Amino acid sequence: MATGNSTLPSQPKVETSRSGLSRGQDRKPITVFAERYALVGAWIVLAIFFSFLRPDTFPTIGNLSAILGSQASIAVLTLGLIIPLTTGDMDASVAFVSNLSAMMVAVLNVNLGVPIGWAILAALASGALVGGINGAFVTIFGIDSFIVTLGMGTFVGGVILLISQSNTISGVSDVLTQAVVITQFLGIPLEFYYAIAVGLFLWYVLEWTPLGRRLIVVGRGRNVARLSGLRVQRIRWGALIASGTISALAGVLYVGTSGAADPTSGSQLLLPAFAAAYLGATCIKPGRFNPIGSLIAVYFLVTGISGLQLLGAQGYVQNLFYGGALVIAVTLSQLTRKREEISPGNSQ
Amino acid sequence: MIPENGGPAALRVSALRKTFGGTVALAGVDLEILAGEVHGLLGENGSGKSTLIKVLAGYHAPDSGELQVRGKQIPLPLAPGQFRDLGVEFVHQDLGLVPALTVTENLRIGSYAAGERRFWLSRSREHREAEELFARYNLTINPSVQVRLLPPVQRALLAIARAAEGLRNSPAVQESGGGLLILDEPTVFLPSDDVQRLYELIRTITSTGSSVLFVSHDLDEVLQITDRVTVLRDGNLVGSVDTAAVTADSLVQMIVGRQLQIATDPRGTAETKEVHCTIDNLSAETIDSVSFHVHRGEILGVTGLVGSGFDEVPYGLFGAGPATSGTLTIGDRAIDLAALEPVLAVAGGLALIPADRGRDGSVGSLSVADNIALPVLGSYFNGGVLRRRRMSKEISTLMSDYDVRPNNPSAQYSSLSGGNQQKAVLAKWLQTHPQLLLLHEPTQGVDIGARQQLFGAIRAAAADGTSVICASTDHEQLAELCDRVLIFAHGRMIHELTGQDIQKERITELSFGAVSTK
Ligand SMILES: Nc1ncnc2c1ncn2[C@@H]1O[C@H](COP(=O)(O)OP(=O)(O)OP(=O)(O)O)[C@@H](O)[C@H]1O
Ligand SMILES: [Mg+2]
């Protein structure tokens, strides 16, 4: 069992080498507040900016509904991702798992005539299974989680092509599309509320249960967690199973939105999910991956993209925006985390 | 060895003030370090010693104050790293080594960062240079081993030697003939037999005209090594005095500002108590088939020289270290030590307070409450939610019981001073009322007042029926705290001291004697 206190991909420990001391910050409450809500502020500014430039298309109910509804799948995916990120593990397979889940629903329901309920259950189970395999390699064999999940993701991508024969499969039961996208509440498709529900649930777990505290301790100090009697490996494994299952749920929402599953959509979701997770870690609870921040980040990003598209930007703007956002978000979250973690060693 | 008053002071700080939010860490402190002297900086936990040093390191920006280096006015705040241009080097308590890199790489971090002039880095040449360096300071450290694999002692020596070397090579020092080496509690990681080596190293450094600022809680050490001392209390300057003119008692009074009651412990009643824990044939890396027992409520010390294996005892009994065989029987439950995991140890009523507080004992980036509550989180989970308010309240009470200052459960753990961090770790485990409490160097970095408080807490736990095993090389601490002391050498238990035999000198004698009778 690998129980070492290795340097974790998502939780870079600040190494205080001789030259590594930087100035300590002493923060006033106002700065703390500004930092927590900076992203919310930026979101509002962005919305006002686009409303001003495109007064007849941007600030409309239709556009709001589109923005909020269309992102449920990415939002849920991001929420799944932050669980292993919290325990200090990477999960690069989430997007492929969600794609697999979408494809399984389509293949089972459309090609094999399996009732939609059973198809969804099977899809969720496949996500849990992939997460379980990831976790087994990471905890039993002590392999780096980034490598394992990257490999598993690619493997899953192959499975998708295999079971779909590389075809887009459409015609999924409209029971699902009804429940996901067609039915609206307050003018917004139900899937938006599903994403919010998952976010709230995760918030509850992370903030209000002992498990949530344990997840953070495992991510921040493996050795401390182990010596405090936590089942570190079991917790990490569980986190990867959870991210697999929740990613599969994102896939169900995806297939429910379009009524179809295509074999290559997975790779397009990977970057947005990571961008949102890291951007989310810069707000609400700066320095920590947190569900509320993640949701805000998802909608911040899509607001920017859809606004730019309304201004006439081409499809490539999506790549520019998500790619740029990821790098900036990681930089920002690194800075805030540094502040949370830095102190000359554990200080005297 | 008081240097003549001719030249300017190596360093002079005046009216230095630093606050953190509402906390006044330094309230206008003066400090003068003369050229070529060893200067001690003393004070209780949280009195501002580390803060003062971090200002000099350019880590904290002071609110106000002035700095002169060798007579030259230097504007504050200092930029990070600027100290090097001034001929000042630091060894912080965390030592500032990168665990995943080798010894050689750690030695060369500075020059890699400064822009290596050589294009081709020859590994063998670097190793040779490292070996030369160690030879200069009389050390035996393998240059190609990863630092995380070094024992703490060697890590400390490496860090100090590296800083001394930095000083030796500094243009500022070569020009003026004297630099300043600042050591923030360098000896807490060092067993007493190695401290001597450090003294020699320090004397070598001062003989070249450099000065040393030395932070320590160990008064004997301070009296032995320093020329002058400065004492801080609650961020204020109490005074600077010549070491030759003070005694341990008068220093204590300066530090705590009152007469300290050293509790005389009622010891020696252990024989009458029942045997609580039995350890049979414990073997690990060094220790070989050691058997002993602990009575209920007894405080058992284990000690020896570095490498004697005594320090494997607490980890081996907790499943945290490499026990290869052995059985621990608590009451009538037998635990196989080779298969023990910390999870099971905790469930079985054991608690371990490791020596390396930063790495194993606590998560610096989380709050004090999160750290303390970790073993008892479940008890705050009620009606489907974590009762955070109750948690914060109870932890605040616990913190005042153990005198953790400031009493703010939501403060970041790493913002506590060293001694307060240690009190918090003790609180974390004693609240679980363990059957067997395993301690490794429990009072390192803890001031004399707090040390008495920690001893008090440990004794109170013992009186409540907790059995305690304390592994330490602090012989004074063992003499003061323990009911019985086991001395190890070469992986075996060679002496047992009880009752009146438990004297500091006797423990030291037997630990060393063990080597010569090899
Ligand atoms: N980064 C920080 N943020 C807030 N408060 C701090 C910070 N660093 C230090 N303090 C506070 O400043 C005071 C002085 O702390 P400092 O670390 O200088 O004490 P110390 O004398 O080094 O103690 P010890 O002997 O325990 O190491 C303490 O009350 C401490 O809690
Ligand atoms: Mg200190």
Uncertain runs of chain A are 1-26, 340-348
User: Main sheet of chain B: which strands, in order across?
Assistant: 6-7-8-3-9-10
* Gyration radius of chain B, rounded: 24 Å
What is the annotated CATH architecture of the largest domain in chain B? 3-Layer(aba) Sandwich
Count of beta strands of chain B: 22
Structural class assignment of chain B: alpha/beta
- What percent of the residues of chain B sit in helical stretches (DSSP H or I)? 25-40%
Largest inter-chain interface?
A: A-B, 44 and 70 residues
- What is the H/E string of chain A? HHHHHHEHEEHHHHEHHH
Count of all domains of chain A: 1
Total helices of chain A: the number is: 14
The end-to-end span of chain B amounts to: 38 Å
Judged by helices, strands and strand pairing, the structural class of chain A is mainly alpha
Would you state the CATH class of the largest domain in chain B? Alpha Beta
Q: Please describe the biggest sheet of chain A, giving its number of strands, its sense, and whether it closes into a barrel.
A: 2 strands, antiparallel
Question: What separation lies between the terminal Cα atoms of chain A?
Answer: 33 Å
Strand content of chain B: 15-25%
Strand fraction of chain A = under 5%
Supply Rg of chain A: 21 Å
Give a verbal description of the structure:
The complex is a heterodimer of chains A (348) and B (518). Helices cover 71% and strands 2% of the residues of chain A. Chain A starts with 28 loop residues before the first helix and ends in a 7-residue tail after the last helix. Chain A is globular, with a radius of gyration of 21 Å. In chain A, helix 3 (72-86) runs parallel beside helix 8, helix 3 runs antiparallel to helix 13 and helix 12 (265-280) runs parallel beside helix 14. In chain A, the strands form two sheets. In chain A, strands 1-4 form a two-stranded antiparallel ribbon. A two-stranded antiparallel sheet of chain A has the order 2-3. Chain A has one domain (6-346): ABC transporter involved in vitamin B12 uptake, BtuC. Chain A has 348 residues and is an all-alpha fold. Chain A has 14 helices and four strands. Residues 1-26 and 340-348 of chain A have low confidence and may be disordered. Chain A has helices at 29-53, 61-70, 72-86, 94-111, 116-140, 145-164, 174-182, 190-208, 210-220, 222-227, 232-258, 265-280, 291-310, 316-341, and strands at residues 169-170, 184-185, 188-189, 260-261. With 518 residues, chain B is an alpha/beta fold. Chain B folds into two domains: 11-256, P-loop containing nucleotide triphosphate hydrolases (Rossmann fold, 3-Layer(aba) Sandwich), CATH 3.40.50; 275-349 and 432-514, Rossmann fold. Chain B is 35% helix and 24% strand. Chain B has helices at residues 49-56, 82-85, 103-113, 123-136, 152-169, 171-176, 192-207, 219-225, 248-256, 312-318, 342-347, 357-361, 368-373, 388-401, 418-430, 448-463, 475-481, 504-516; strands at 11-20, 23-33, 38-43, 64-69, 72-74, 88-91, 180-184, 211-215, 228-233, 236-242, 275-283, 290-295, 299-304, 325-330, 333-336, 350-353, 381-382, 385-386, 436-440, 467-471, 484-489, 492-498. Chain B has a six-stranded mixed β-sheet, with helices on both faces. Chain B has a six-stranded mixed β-sheet with strand order 16-19-20-13-21-22, sandwiched between helices. In chain B, helix 5 (152-169) runs parallel beside helix 7, helix 15 runs parallel beside helix 16 (448-463) and helix 17 packs across helix 18 (504-516). The radius of gyration of chain B is 24 Å and the shape is globular. The two termini of chain B are 38 Å apart. The chains are: A mainly alpha (348), B alpha/beta (518). At the A-B interface, helix 8, helix 9 and helix 10 of A face helix 1, helix 3, helix 5, helix 11 and helix 12 of B. Bound molecules: adenosine-5'-triphosphate and magnesium ion. Magnesium ion is lined by residues 49-50, 417-418 of chain B.
